[in-house]
Amino acid sequence: MAVVIDRDECTGCGLCIDECPSEALSFDAEGISTVDPDLCVECGACVDVCPVVAITL
Ligand code: SF4
Ligand code: SF4
Question: For the chain, how many structural domains are there in total?
């Protein structure tokens, strides 16, 4: 079921995108982090790195 990103909380810092080992995260057209559930391996790295706790797994 991959990760869920709270679009209201995401600041677009990009830390989660840098941290993702499977390149499942990217910015959408509005500069908010978005996940490709087909690529996410549910490692939790993005959850740990997000400074505003916008990602849950
Ligand atoms: S849980 Fe892991 S694989 Fe999935 S989006 Fe986050 S960092 Fe990437
Ligand atoms: S680390 Fe958190 S605030 Fe930064 S881009 Fe990812 S979801 Fe948004």
Answer: 1
3-state helix, strand, coil in the chain (%, to 5): 20, 20, 65
Among 6, 35, 53, 56, say which to mutate for ligand 1: greatest number of ligand atoms within 8 Å of CB.
35
User: Whole domain around residue 40: which residue ranges?
Assistant: 4-56
Alpha carbon nearest to ligand 1 atom 7, residue: 20
Q: Strands, E, within 9-57: which ranges?
A: 25-27, 33-35, 55-56
pLDDT digits (tens, 9 = 90+) for 1-56: 789 999 999 999 999 999 999 999 999 999 999 999 999 999 999 999 999 999 99
